[in-house]
Design brief:
Length: 263
């Protein structure tokens, strides 16, 4: 049984005085299962709740200003739960990988079809070609609920198979930085699960902070385009860093943001 997300925990972690003023909340790895308090956080824009025990997306429907939602490694089994996110017109980034629902053969197509407002699903941007493929035919909820694992339709982002042993769907949908964490030798394989979890948390913090703190002032389209390009480069290179490199990057982000907030 998971824990309840309480007002006190939210206010302490977000450094806010009222639930209604919370804009960003990162509660990675807190064994949370009851997040009904989100109903009182209607102004929240970024939620990082990865590595918890959340089983439903129902409560997120109460956050109309949500733009980014990170829910890796939770307990969401039913893929049709994404329909609760349909009213969130501002939602652009969604991470559901490493949930049971992400193993469904129609995972990306179903999510893209039901949430056309998204621009990024997990670690991959949604391309025009992939969106067109997803909307080529309607995927009925019955196909999802009955567990019909229909063979994945070809995607422009997936290379053709070259061996008789296909890669499992879960592996294809995992973020690139997860593949970096897979043991490459017997020595790496002996690394403790705690070290792996700490590394996962650093990645979550860095990506959430970078995305949150890089938004330019409204109306500055040139600056926005430049920041988008920089972010793309950061996300492409971040998977190449080792544990020490990730720690250095996170410290630098925290340092830069601390200097900016003190001005």
């Amino acid at each position: 049984m998971g824990k309840v997300l309480t007002p006190d925990l939210v206010l302490v972690r977000s450094k806010s005085e009222r639930l209604s003023t919370v804009k960003n909340l990162n509660l990675w790895g807190n064994d949370l299962s009851d997040i009904s308090i989100l109903r009182e956080m209607q102004n929240v824009e970024v939620l990082s709740l990865s590595v918890n025990k959340i089983a439903s997306l129902r409560e997120f429907a109460q956050c109309p200003k949500l733009t980014e939602l990170y829910l890796r490694k939770n307990e969401i089994v039913d893929l049709t739960e994404v329909r609760y996110l349909k009213p969130l017109a501002s939602l652009r980034v969604l991470w559901l990988c490493d949930n049971p629902c992400a193993e469904h053969a129609l995972y990306r197509y179903y999510v893209i079809q039901n949430l056309p407002q998204l621009t990024k699903l997990d670690n991959n941007d949604i391309s025009f070609e992939e969106r067109a493929l997803a909307n080529k035919e309607i995927i009925a909820d019955s196909q999802i609920l009955e567990g019909l694992h229909i063979p994945r339709r070809p995607s422009v982002t997936e290379p053709p198979a070259v061996s008789a042993s296909p890669v499992p769907a879960a592996a294809r949908q995992s973020p690139s930085f997860d593949s970096r964490e897979r043991p490459a030798s017997s020595e790496v394989a002996r690394r403790s699960s705690r070290d792996s979890a700490d590394m996962d948390r650093v990645v979550e913090d860095v990506m959430s902070s970078a995305s949150r703190n890089s938004r330019p002032p409204p109306g500055n389209s040139v600056s926005s385009h430049r920041n988008d390009n920089i972010l793309c480069a950061i996300f492409a290179l971040i998977k190449e860093l080792d544990d020490q490199g990730m720690e250095v990057l996170k410290r630098e982000i925290d340092k830069r943001m601390g200097v900016k907030s003190s001005r």
